[in-house]
């Protein structure tokens, strides 16, 4: 090998390395159906090397993206707007849940009519810092209900106490409660007019600027992945069940079916400026952000 | 002044360095808050933070007091016979290894939301160092002095109160120093789940990406730990001054 071919080969190798350099995708929870499409995606088929980093309660994905410890991450739209107002340049690329799947679940035996009734007595387990928690507080007041921290996905306190209500993923905890023999009534948060995109693929403004093509390819891979998962979740569910055996196989199938209506839309993952503007207005009114910002900065439909 | 100067120098240097790093955009403010932002958060949320601080202090102090009395009592019991020590000491170690985060949700089921859960959490986390250090202290009484007490026909009770316990004081106080900081940590972890005090403030501020407020609450928690530590040091100085080398230097 003469010197020139050696140099050429090295350059090619270097190029290949940067080409297939691992891209990290940080999740904000354990592998479960809300991430189905991300696990179903064939990144290699699109020429990307992606490593999915599962998270847990409170994984600060939005800060990880800003700090560069993950190139892509899963965030919620409200989180992203707040982050931007604090100077963390994060941009949404693909919104899995077109409608917010969060809600409050209560025992059906209480015969409650609306989300306001939930707040009239008993206990409500909710993450108080969340914007919708504060919208609820503003609208109805928390004077008559005992507010306690959210137990995550755990429903044992709920099962033991009829007057206990808790925040939930509409297609997750209510199904668990039903299996445990408790009839529930679910009040979606969207009912009070708060409906941010949820499970949103995001990246940093810098990443987007440096390598716009890579972001575009990533979105294409993810979109194909979600289409595949919606068509047939079984193989991906099996893969995710191996990674997260504490959730049983039947639950994977059930949740995958229940979440479908929240995800399906003409063009999977696409977002509108109107929806972002509404959200920004709500967050500004709550005082979570000091002033409104242009919706166009928050997202990109690639 | 001479006493306060040495710890003040690193405080000022580190604070100024942090402030400079954030202001010059060397690290972004959403990852590490500028000290000035933390001070502003302390000021802006003073009502909320002082109410939270009061709750956390109460829970940590009660939990710490419980582990002091229970821990010393357990150590006295364990030291009374080899057989008891062999049978029960391994279970005391359980308290040291129990992952409090994992059992905290159970505490809520046992004690309900609020103060009791927080106290229980502070107690569980802080009792082991009290047991371990007190036991070591009680078992290392000078044999010559023990023989002297036996020679004079002192009862086991008298030997404990007049000899073994006072002789163990330096170790007991070391155990309490370790336990005091742990009690604060235990209280805050309990508050994440039990929902009140500084733990709750941290939880909410984290959700809102208010790093400045998180650090403001953490700062108050460390002040609380420092205060407890100071009280133990004071007790130590008062009780050991007359005879123990650790409090006599200079």
Core attributes:
heterodimer; A: 302 residues; alpha/beta; D-Maltodextrin-Binding Protein, domain 2; 2 domains; 5-stranded mixed beta sheet; 13 helices; 17% strand; B: 250 residues; mainly alpha; MetI-like fold; 10 helices
Structure explained in plain terms:
The model of chain A is unreliable at 14-19 (pLDDT under 50). Chain A is α/β, with parallel strands linked by helices. Chain A has helices spanning 3-19, 36-40, 61-67, 77-85, 115-118, 131-140, 156-160, 173-179, 205-210, 212-231, 234-243, 249-263, 273-286, and strands at residues 22-26, 49-53, 72-75, 90-97, 102-107, 123-125, 146-148, 164-169, 184-188, 198-204. Chain A is globular. Chain A is 43% helix and 17% strand. Chain A has two domains: 3-99 and 196-297, D-Maltodextrin-Binding Protein, domain 2; 102-192, 3-Layer(aba) Sandwich (D-Maltodextrin-Binding Protein, domain 2), CATH 3.40.190.10. Chain A has a five-stranded mixed sheet with strand order 2-1-3-10-4, sandwiched between helices. In chain A, strands 7-6-8-5-9 form a five-stranded mixed sheet. With 250 residues, chain B is mainly alpha-helical. Chain B has one domain (51-241): MetI-like fold (Orthogonal Bundle), CATH 1.10.3720.10. Helix content of chain B is 82%, strand content 0%. Chain B contains ten helices and no strands. Chain B has helices at 5-23, 35-44, 46-80, 82-97, 100-111, 115-139, 143-151, 156-194, 197-207, 211-240. The two termini of chain B are 17 Å apart. The mean pLDDT of chain B is 91.
Shape of chain A: globular
CATH topology of the largest domain in chain A: D-Maltodextrin-Binding Protein, domain 2
Unreliable residue runs of chain A: 14-19
Average pLDDT reading of chain A: 91
What is the end-to-end distance of chain A? 44 Å
Number of helices of chain A: 13
Low-confidence stretches of chain B: none
At CATH level 2, the architecture of the largest domain in chain A is 3-Layer(aba) Sandwich
CATH first level of chain B: Mainly Alpha
β-strand percent of chain B reads under 5%
- Structure classification of chain A: alpha/beta
| Rg estimate of chain B, integer Å | 22 Å
| Overall pLDDT confidence of chain B | 91
